[in-house]
Amino acid sequence: MELFFEAILVLFVGQEAAFGVFLGLLLIAGLWGIFKKCGITPWHALIPCYRSYELSRAANSEMEGRVLFVADVTMTVLNVASLFIPDESTLSVMQMILILVM
């Protein structure tokens, strides 16, 4: 049954996207377990930007968590903007700078 769903996913979205979905689900499953063990509501692993803040809260580093939260939100906005802006050179440079700053 799993092979059927994987074949359908690869057929409709391509092999690279299917691998990205697999990695995303693996990340969510891992964070779900971490949040559960730390006493944080596990469904926070499903919220893309908020999970980085909750992860830093679990490590008792709230200030770094705020910085990571802002960087994560900025990166998410840039990734969504790159879908709609045809000239990606400016966004790519901004993403590289953000990665280097983090």
Note the main attributes of this structure.
102 residues; mainly alpha
The main sheet comes to: none
Question: Rough shape?
Answer: flat
* Percent in helix: over 70%
What's the number of helices? 5
Give the mean pLDDT: 75
The unreliable regions are none
The radius of gyration over CA amounts to: 16 Å
How many domains would you count in the coordinates?
1
How many beta-strand segments?
Answer: 0
Series of H and E elements: HHHHH
How much of the sequence lies in strands comes to under 5%
Distance between the termini: 41 Å
| Structural class by secondary-structure content | mainly alpha
Structure description:
This protein has one domain. The chain is built from five helices and no strands. The longest helix is centred in the N-terminal third of the chain and has 24 residues. The N and C termini lie far apart (41 Å).
Could you write a compact summary of the structure shown?
The chain has five helices and no strands. The chain has 102 residues and is mainly alpha-helical. The model has no long low-confidence stretch (mean pLDDT 75).
List the helices and strands and how they pair.
Blueprint: H1 2-13, H2 15-38, H3 50-58, H4 62-84, H5 89-101
